[in-house]
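Subject: for your reference before the review

Hello V.,

The reviewers asked for a structural picture of the protein, and I figured it would be easier to keep everything in one thread rather than splitting it across files. Below is the amino acid sequence we used in the manuscript, unchanged from the supplementary table.
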Amino acid sequence: MPLDALIFDFDGLIIDTETPEVLVWREVFREYGQDYPDEIWMNAVGRGAEQTKESPLQLLNKLTEGKLDLEEVDRARQRRLYNMIAAEPTRRGVVSLIKEAKSAGLRLGVASSSKHAWVDGHLQRLGIAHYFDQVLCADDAPRSKPFPDIYLRAVSQLKVGTAEVIAFEDSPTGIEAAKAAGLFVIAVPNSMTANMDLTKADARFESLDGVGIGRLAEIFHY
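And here is what came back from the structure prediction:
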C-alpha cells in the first residue's frame, strides 16, 4: 500500500509540553513539602483528563489534608506552565518533515488527547497550523487515548485507509491507541518518555531530525 498520510500526536511529539508540565508539578509539590510521584505523570502521559483516576491537584489536596485553595494553586501552576511552554519550539525535525510531506502531497493530521483550546492555539503560535488537513482532539471523540477513537476519526476525515498511514507517538498510551486503530506507528520519545516501554511501536527514532519521506517509505514498506 502507498504511504498517503502522516498523523502526529501533539503533546510531547510536536512540542515537548510534557517535560515542562512535570517540572512545574514537581515545583508545586515541593512548595507544600511533598514529592510529586513518578507514577502519576507516567500514567497520565498521552491520556485525556477523563482517563485519569486522580489528578495531581487532587492528590496534593489529599496530602495536605484539604488545606489548599485549589483554584489559586491551579491558577498559579497554569501561569508557570504557560510561560514555560510559550518558550518551547517544535521538536527537532518536525517542521522539516511536515513541509516535505506537504510538498509531496501527503495528507497531514493531528490526533491529540488534549482539547482544541490547547492544541489549536499552540499550532497557531508555532506557525504550523496551516499545514494540517485535519486536527482531531479530545473534543472530537467519545473516548481519548488509549482508545483508538481519535485516530479512527482522523483517518476517516483524512479520507485515507488505515493501511496507508504512519502515526507518530511519544508514549505507550498513544502507541496503544494508534495500533488499536490499525496504524503503522513510529515512536519518537521525549526526555520524559524515553525510558518507558515503547516496544509496541513498529519503529523508533530518538528524534525526527533528518528523517524524510524516503526514509519513512523504506520503513513503512519493510
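For the response letter, the relevant points are probably these. The chain has two domains: 5-16+90-220, 18-85. The longest strand covers residues 107-111.

Happy to draft the paragraph if you're swamped.

O.
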